[in-house]
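Hi support team,

I've been running sequence recovery on a batch of backbones for a student project. Most finish fine, but this one hangs at about 90% for roughly twenty minutes before it completes. I'm not sure whether the input is malformed or the queue is just slow. I've pasted the structure tokens below so you can try to reproduce it. Let me know if you need the job ID as well.

Thanks,
M.K.
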């Protein structure tokens, strides 16, 4: 039996477990799509060479997809206001004065972000937009947790001043 056929048989035998795992992690609505994506990724990986432990690769791929999905959902949740999505909010036309005020506020925030030191800006973006914890930021940047907190305090202070 070829590697591709044995891989397909293994995936078929593991598919229920993968769907159950993903259902626990992301819910029944999204689990089948993520399971299909995990299978496709493993098959694509196998096309490039021998897969030593396909069952493990399938589980890890499913875990990573579930983690990415959850992260994406958290990010989307930050952009929902009063139960409305960004698209729904954009559909409701604000007054010209409100648009001008929002544009000016955004401009002040971007100017304040630009005025931050590169490291301070990087720490702020990692914390606020990538939702990383201080320990993870410190590890990735090779700085202490106290330095991360100092950069965050500086960034928040500058941004608050820009909006006042």
């Amino acid at each position: 039996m070829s590697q591709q056929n044995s891989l397909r048989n293994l995936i078929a035998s593991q598919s229920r477990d993968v769907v159950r795992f993903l259902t626990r992690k992301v819910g029944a609505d999204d689990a089948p799509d993520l399971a299909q994506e995990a299978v496709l990724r493993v098959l694509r990986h196998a096309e490039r060479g021998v897969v030593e432990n396909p069952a493990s690769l399938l589980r890890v791929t499913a875990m990573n997809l579930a983690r990415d999905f959850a992260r994406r959902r958290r990010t989307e949740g930050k952009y929902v206001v009063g139960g409305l999505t960004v698209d729904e909010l954009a559909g409701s036309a604000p007054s010209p004065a409100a648009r001008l005020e929002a544009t000016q506020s955004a401009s002040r925030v971007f100017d304040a972000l630009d005025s931050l030191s590169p490291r301070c800006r990087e720490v702020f973006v990692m914390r606020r937009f990538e939702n990383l914890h201080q320990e993870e930021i410190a590890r990735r940047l090779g700085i202490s947790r106290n330095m991360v907190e100092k950069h965050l305090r500086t960034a928040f202070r500058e941004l608050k001043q820009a909006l006042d």
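--
Follow-up from support: It reproduced on our side and the slowdown came from queue contention, not your input. The helical segments are 3-26, 31-47, 54-78, 86-91, 96-115, 118-128, 134-141, 145-163. No action needed from you.
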